[in-house]
Design goal:
The structure is a homodimer. Chain A is mainly α. Chain A contains 22 helices and six strands. In chain A, the strands form two sheets. The first copy, chain A, has a three-stranded mixed β-sheet with strand order 1-2-3. A three-stranded mixed β-sheet of chain A has the order 4-5-6. The termini of chain A are far apart.
Chain lengths: ~425, ~425
């Protein structure tokens, strides 16, 4: 595929979609084959492939590039990809590259590197099109033609006043449909959905979804346009946030990535497990407190997992509903309605569960009806409390703006464990005489 | 805001972004105010607001519209929104509307209504631009100007051959940058990322993300273009799929929506809880089996929740990693590497947890070292098994293409419960003599 005619190879490769070019390049194991690729492609063509690689692979491959070729590749990359890469490279490589770069681009990249991860500034790229409000449509289209190759998108034209402040937006669609002598100011939409540079990425994703945007502009406090965030970046954010939600749920915040080492994964997860173990010691204490009851009827301990499990699972169901409605902002529409619904659902599930136990326990335990009533009653009550806890605690935590981790699955479950154990043993102790 | 001058109200409203127009309309409680809106806006202007409303609200408001106005609103809606709405309306309303609609549009909408939810066909809309390959760039741009108002996007032009088959795509960006006398065939990309009509939405989302697309074309088996799916639809899909993942995790599949009633939520969730209760009965049987051990040292039951909890939480962590890497397709890159990493992480977490218990238990239980070793050892072993179960079972289930629900959080946790209880009591029974 590689050794023969460079021209036909180039032609074949460049016909592919950039993602497929990247995929093809990614699987090249042999460094000398990769060298041939660098030779065959212009820096500009290779940059398009290179910036789609995973950051880790970019860091690996960067050192294979010759100095001038490398500098040209960097120049052709989009500024935010370059900033991401520089954040992973050693100081001296960056310095050397920056010396060879266009001063303007170097400054932009250095600026971008300063933004905190998860903010608008860290997601944006600076290849946008902004034009003065007094240009006519005809002039604007002329400019766009020139930008078509360089800008990240030309489908939105951001309109600036003479102080370079963002005052409007025109979609290319409207530009094409408009009369060519009108000015941008006449046809622009003045209401521009925009974010400031330190805006959180979750909020940005929500705006993009609500307003069906392809790109969202980022401005500083004086409404000067700093960059744009493209919808494909935002898709990645949505994916990332979903992973985060799941991580909170599973006591694995920041440890769901497949690429981190076993040691790092253990480091991030072990504190959760150990913390939960310590809370488990409290549960053990609670059970020890009822030692006398247990001494009388040892059989009672057989149902500890069942009561706890039912409460835990129900609490988790409710928690999932609430976590989801908090991140969808649905919760704002009516907290009480949600709480009421959850409690009613919990009540109904509790009745069904108690009914099942009243049938099954006498069958398995020789018609031990008192046991069935104690376990069934406990499950019913425990489910009620579990629903309440799984529902109200995350809402309160969200209102108070406390770290969401406290509302994470395992903590709620552990809390439910304790409550359900107390309920179970209180009921069992009260009706102990019927069991013997 | 409403009663006075219609013209200035119209002007104010239409200046807003369509999402904000919708938000404003949504909060109008008074039907007579809404009537005024219908009077003030053309059917076309109102359709833009109307089709952004939630389906439930659309169904409510539809009956407020006068017959001819309603027909005009329907005509101005995008075909897939209309199909979604029709799927919720009673037969006679649909029939009446279809009689008044353009025959072509009616046929299209009826077609769309047939597609199964969650497939490409159900997501696509038919307002796309496709042009013959022999048109010149100049002619194409001329056509686009005419379509600009009607099409969902004009940023991709799909290129057809004389048999109306999809043979290429040209972005508007390339169209603008090209020489006006070239034909579409000369400048088009032949590699069109496309899906067939029954493609699953999760796959479509992945393609869109990988290839950074704004829209993806849907074709039939003969490569005739049927419609396009816009990126904003796909953002909703990603959101939906994340909710689904969480639902599986929390034993609440299809029951996370906030809009469903308590009864429906209970109906969907109760079977999970009751099923898990029955499995819990097995755990109870296992514990009953060790009744003699418990009779000797009742204290042992105090640590049942702790051992189970630690195994459950660790299993959930691993499960979350695997579920995530399956839905990212990362798992294909190296199953064994992932399994090995998880087992190593589980081993390390197990050692840390056992160490904690060896310190804490003697403190709380008057230097009861045998108890500490029994519980610590059980936790160490149970964590190892839990990691293995949380990791291997979902991978096997994924390979065998069994329903993912079996790999859901609660089932894995319940399985881990049983295994950890067995481990705990086997160890406790073996070393019982040291406890007394």
């Amino acid at each position: 595929l590689e050794n023969d005619d460079i021209e036909s190879f180039r032609h074949e490769l460049l016909r592919l979609h950039q993602y497929n070019q990247m995929k093809w390049f990614e699987q090249l194991q042999n460094p000398s084959l990769r060298k041939n690729v660098y030779k065959a492609l212009s820096a500009r063509e290779f940059a398009a492939i290179f910036q789609k690689l995973k950051l880790k692979d970019q860091v690996d491959k960067v050192q294979e590039l010759e100095d001038t070729y490398q500098a040209d590749v960097f120049s052709a990359m989009s500024t935010n990809r370059l900033a991401d890469l520089f954040n992973r490279l050693p100081e001296h490589v960056i310095h050397q590259s920056i010396d060879q770069m266009d001063a303007e681009q170097a400054r932009t990249v250095m600026q971008l590197m300063k933004h905190e991860e998860g903010t608008a500034g860290a997601l944006m790229t600076t290849e946008f099109v902004s034009l003065n409000k007094d240009l006519t449509i005809e002039q604007a289209i002329e400019k766009l033609r020139a930008f078509a190759d360089l800008a990240e998108t030309i489908y939105y034209v951001y309109v600036e006043n003479d102080q370079h402040q963002l005052v409007g937006v025109v979609s290319l669609r409207h530009l094409l449909a408009g009369e060519s002598t009108k000015t941008l100011e006449e046809i622009m939409k003045e209401e521009v959905i925009q974010v400031v540079q330190d805006k959180d990425q979750e909020d940005i994703a929500k705006l993009t979804k609500d307003y069906d945007l392809i790109a969202i502009p980022v401005v500083d406090d004086d409404r000067h346009l700093l960059g744009i965030i493209m919808v494909d970046e935002i898709m990645d954010v949505v994916e990332e946030e979903a992973t985060e939600d799941l991580g909170e749920f599973a006591a694995s915040r920041g440890a769901l990535g497949i690429e981190i080492s076993a040691l790092l994964a253990a480091k991030k997860r072990a504190p959760w497990i150990m913390g939960l173990l310590l809370i488990g010691m409290v549960t053990a204490q609670i059970i020890s407190f009822f030692e006398n009851t247990l001494q009388e009827v040892v059989m009672l301990s057989a149902f500890i997992p069942l009561v706890m499990g039912a409460a835990g699972n129900t609490g988790t169901q409710t928690l999932a509903v609430i976590v989801r409605s908090i991140s969808n902002d649905e919760v704002k529409k009516g907290v009480w309605k949600i709480i009421l619904r959850e409690l009613s659902a919990g009540f109904m599930i509790g009745i069904c569960s108690a009914a099942v136990l009243l049938i099954v326990i006498p069958i398995f335990y020789n018609g031990n009806w008192p046991l069935a009533f104690i376990v069934g009653g406990s499950v019913f009550l425990a489910l009620g409390f579990a629903t309440f806890i799984g529902c109200v605690i995350p809402i309160i935590i969200n209102k108070l703006n406390i770290d969401q981790a406290v509302a994470s699955g395992p903590f709620i479950t552990t809390l439910n464990d304790m409550v359900s154990i107390v309920i179970y043993f209180l009921i069992a102790t009260s009706f102990l005489q019927y069991l013997q």
